[in-house]
Amino acid sequence: MPSSVIVLGAGMVGVSVALHLRRRGHDVLLVDRQDPGLGASFGNGGLIQREAVHPHPFPRVASEIMRIARNKSIDAHYHWGALPGLATPLLRYWWNSEPQRYARIAEAYAKLIETCLDEHYAIARGTDAMPLLRPIGWIRMFSDEASFNFARMQAEEGKRLHGVNFATMDSAALAEAEPALLKSRHGAIHWTDPVSVSDPHALVMSYAARFAEAGGRFVTGDAASLARAGAGWRVQTADGPAEAEQVVVALGAFANKVTKPLGYDPPTFGKRGYHKHFALQGNAVLNRPVLDTESSFLLAPMRAGVRLTTGAEFAGIDEAPTPVQLARAEPVARTLLPLGDAVEREPWMGVRPCTPDMLPIIGKLPGQQGAWCAFGHAHQGFTLGPTTGRLLAEMMDGETPFIDPTPYRADRF
Q: Residue 3: what pLDDT?
């Protein structure tokens, strides 16, 4: 029977969970300390990544680990003071990246990714979200033949096993596709399935509007105030205390702050990321997102300008921003594209919620009746929000889920 549900967290995952539950008849209250889509969903590459059937493993080649350990790269940066607290989850992350263990994890991960486009379009079709979704894919560029050939081999495996579509480009084809590029590259892979979103925040807000149209309610509130209320749950909001029979924790990297007092403290960790927008000089145009493998950053055309994104920063989730990776990336990016002035004075920062086994946590919160988890999506919360929403809604309604949820269960930690 339909029940009352509080969903904590209004990023892409939380909004999608709330929408799916409301469309099934549940009385749903969506709660966040800020408006929908202003957390990690606000700042990303703006890609719905159908090609991302393999999660990001921890490096296992000694030379690569040493490169990152020097703490001078664009793709990875760390705070020395944060390392003691990160040691255990990062060690487990490294252990799970062993090839045989990683292969089993990737198989479970791919099951979620394979459905992502269908689930997004099921929400967006016929709404104001559709103009935001650009079916143009994205391009990964390579400077040398060896890395290009290895990536092409992996892409062919992805196509064979998971139906991932791509096209290869030589240097001339890349220059024709992106004439504003200032440097040539040996070759590129054009991932043709992914959808590029021109304004990620606007997409979350559009999905939130669908939730409101369906009769759902959003209110600002304090997720940390979550407590038992008889057989149900209570949380403090701007409209006063709210109670419901069930609660979903969809708070991304901040989920542990709510689940730990309830006896569940999985070894999650945050990867902080930054972005900044730039104008392009003259009549230059970037037609689709491009990632330069040599430099390890993404340049994506957005409504606000060309978005320069960074890799991962390992630091405490509450520490002040330290956008050193953007400072390293910007001069290199200017050699690739004719970037003009920055659009914003200060860069954006957000935290990606990661698990040591690279799989999200979706399902019952251990030891707590009527409590559910939907967090830990790492780099792919934006991609997997609607898939997670459908999966969790089916579980909460006691149906046979369209994907086997066993690999994502919370009690695996």
A: 87
CB of 71 closer than 8 Å to CB of 78: yes
Per-residue DSSP letter, 254: G
What is the C-alpha separation between 64 and 67, in angstroms, rounded? 5
| 376-398: pLDDT as tens digits | 999 999 999 999 999 999 999 99
- State the burial class of residue 283 (Cβ atoms within 10 Å of its Cβ: 0-12, 13-18, 19+): exposed
Q: How far apart are CA 8 and CA 222, in angstroms?
A: 9
Residue 188, C-beta contacts closer than 8 angstroms, at least 6 positions apart: 139, 140, 141, 142, 148, 168, 169, 173, 174, 290
Q: Are 37 and 200 in contact (CB under 8 A)?
A: yes
Q: What is the pLDDT of residue 294?
A: 85
- Sign of the CA dihedral running 381, 386, 390, 393: positive
Distance (Å, whole) CA 102 – CA 95: 9
Kindly report the pTM of this predicted structure. 0.96
pLDDT in tens, 307-340: 999 889 999 999 999 999 999 999 999 999 999 9
Separation of CA 332 from chain center: 25
- Which residues is 297 bridged to in the sheet? 292
Please name the residue that has the structure tokens 């008889």. 230
Which domains does the chain possess?
1-54+101-130+198-267+356-413 (3.50.50.60)
